[in-house]
Amino acid sequence: MKTRRVFDVAVLGGSTGALVAACLLRKKGYKVVHVEHDGLAGLYHHAGRALPVAPEFLPLPRRSPVMAEVLDTLSLVADSGRLLRALPALQILTPGRRFSLPFEPEKQRAELSREFGEELGARAAERIAALLHADAETSKLLAEHPPLPPDGLFERRALKRLGDTVPDTAPSFEGLPELETLFAGLERLGSYLHTEAPSPLQRLRSVAGLLQGVVRGTAELEPGGYASLLRRRFESLGGVRAGGNKGIVESIGVKSGRIDVIEVLDDNTEYHPRFVVSGLEVAALRRLLPLDSRRRKFDARLGSVRPRELLFSLNLVLKAGKLPLGLADAALYLPRENGALDGEVLLLERFPEAGGEGEEVLQISTFVPASRREQGRPFFEQEEARLLDLLRSDLLPFLDEHLVATSAPILEDGESRGSRLNPWPRLETDLGLSLGVGLLPPSTPYKNLILAGRENVPGLGLEGEFLAGHRAARLVAEQAKRHDPLKGS
Fold first, then answer.
1. Dist. CA 59–CA 90, nearest whole Å
2. Secondary structure of the chain in the HEC alphabet?
3. Are 457 and 440 in contact (CB under 8 A)?
4. How many Å from the N-terminal Cα to the C-terminal Cα in the chain?
5. What is the CB neighbour count within 10 angstroms for residue 396?
6. CA pseudo-torsion sign 414, 333, 309, 163
7. Partners of 252 in beta bridges
8. How does pLDDT run across 457-486, given as a tens digit for each residue?
9. CA distance 59 to 224
10. Residue pair 13/280 in contact by the 8 Å Cβ criterion
11. Structure-model confidence comparison of residues 117 and 174, the more confident one
12. What is the DSSP letter of 420?
C-alpha cells in the first residue's frame, strides 16, 4: 500500500524554469516536492570516463534583470560569483583568422581594428555599441515582468503597449562576413526559437546577452550551470526531491478538472499537490496527462510546438597538452566551404578536468535538424566524421596523433539524469508569438496546472526560462492566497 503525502506544490521537470519556480515557492514557505524527470545531466560515462553532456556557455546573470532578481532573492549572488567563472572574451576562429571579442568596449574596438583595419573595425565597434544600447532599453522593459506570453485580453493589451517600445535595430556588418555569420550563430545559441525572421526582441536579447559576458561552471559545481546552482539551493531550503536525482513521473491522475495525484517511478508514495508547476517539454507532458476532454483540447496547443533543430555535441578525448596553445576555453569556429563562410557556427569548449589521467576533453557542438534523430546512429556517426574532418583541415591538423577516443552523448544510452532533455532545443510553432518571443501562456485547461518551461518564452532562451519560472511562482502564490479558506480570518 502506498503512502499518501500532501504538498502545496509539485514541480515537474529539471529545466531551469522549473527549478526557479521550485526555489522561489520554497523560499516563500510553501511545501514543495520536485520531480526531476527530464533534467539535464551534467556528465555521462563512456569507457570509464566522465564526459560533459553539453556545452557550458551561459550569459552573465547581471545582464538580465530577472536573472539578477531571482539569484538575489534566493541569496545565490555570492555562490554564482564563486562557482561560475567568467570568460575574458569570445574567441572567433576561421580558416585564416583568429581573433577575440573582449567584453570591455575599448579592448573590443582595439581588437576589431587590429584584425579588420581601422575603418572597418571602428564601424563594427560602433554597430555593436548601438546594439548593446538598444538592448539596455529592453532590459528596462523586462525588469517590469511583462506578461509574456499574455493570458487574457487585458494582458494582451498591456503587452502590446510595451511592445511598441522595443527598439527595432538590426546592425549590418557589410564587408565583415565573419561578424555577420558570428551574430547569426549567437542568435541561435542564445534562443530556443527558430523563425525565418527573428523579431527585434529575440535578436537583441540573444545576441547582446552573449556579447556582454559568458560564464561556465568551476570544478566545484556539477556541470549544468544555473540549473545546478538552483538544484543545490532547493535542497538547502528543505525542498523534497521525489526519487532523488533520477526521479521520473510515472503517472498523473486528474479529478474534477484538477491534477489530484502524481506517482513517481520506484517510489512508494502518492503525491497529492494543491498546485502543479510543469517545466517538462511539451511532448513529455502530453504523454503523461490522461486522455480526457481537457487533454484533447490541450493537445492541439501543445502539438503545435516541436523541435526544429537540436544540438549535436561530440567529445574528443585527447592527450593532455596537445591542443593548440592559442585555443581558448571556449571558441566559436566559422568554417569555410569553397573559399566562403558557409553559415555554420561550431562551439568549441575545453574541459581540462574531464577524461582520464593525462587526458583532456575538447567538445565540439553544432545544430542539426531534429528530424535526423529518426535516422539514428548512422546519421550521427556521419556527422561525427564530418566534424572531425573540419578540425583536421584547419584547427587540428595533427588530431589523429593525439586523439585517444571520441564519444557523442546523444549516442549513449545514458542511465544518468537528463537522457531525455535536449540541452539546446530550437523550437518551431504554428501558433502566434507575443513580441516575437513568447509562445505558450502559463495557464492550462487544468485548474491547478501552470506551465514554466522552455516553450513559454523560447525566444529569450535561458532568460525566458527565468521569466517563466518567476511568473509561475507568482501565479501559484496569488492563486493560493485567493483560495485560502483561512484568508482574512
1. 12
2. CCEEEEEEEEEECCCHHHHHHHHHHHHCCCCEEEECCCCCCCEEEECCEEEECCCCCEECHHHCHHHHHHHHHCCCHHHHHHHEEECCEEEEEECCEEEEEECCHHHHHHHHHHHHCHHHHHHHHHHHHHHHHHHHHHHHHHHCCCCCCCCCHHHHHHHHHHHCCCCCCCCCCCCCHHHHHHHHHHHHHCCCECCCCCCHHHHHHHHHHHHCCEEEECCCCCCCCHHHHHHHHHHHCCCEECCHHHCCEEEEEEECCEEEEEEECCCCEEEEEEEEEECCCHHHHHHHCCCCHHHHHHHHHHCCEEEEEEEEEEEEEEECCCCCCCCCCEEEECCEECCEECCCCEEEEEECCCCCCCEEEEEEEEEEEHHHHHHCHHHHHHHHHHHHHHHHHHHCCCHHHHEEEEECHHHCCCCCCCCCCCCCCEEEECCCCECCCECCCCECCCCCEEECCCCCCHHHHHHHHHHHHHHHHHHHHHHHHHCCCCCCC
3. no
4. 38
5. 21
6. positive
7. 262
8. 999 999 999 999 999 999 999 999 876 654
9. 13
10. yes
11. 117
12. T
C-alpha neighbours within 13 Å on the C-beta side of residue 36: 24
CA distance 247 to 249: 7
pTM of the prediction? Answer: 0.94
| 345, three cell numbers | 557556427
**Quick one: the chain helix, strand, coil %, rounded to 5?**
40, 25, 35
Q: Cβ(428)–Cβ(103) under 8 Å?
A: no
Per residue in 362-374, pLDDT (tens digit) is 999 999 999 998 8
253 forms beta bridges with 261
Cα separation, 189 vs 366, in Å, equals: 10
Residue with cell 557589410: 174
Q: Give the C-alpha separation, 345 to 283, whole Å.
A: 28
pLDDT score of 339: 67
Residue pair 9/240 in contact by the 8 Å Cβ criterion:
no
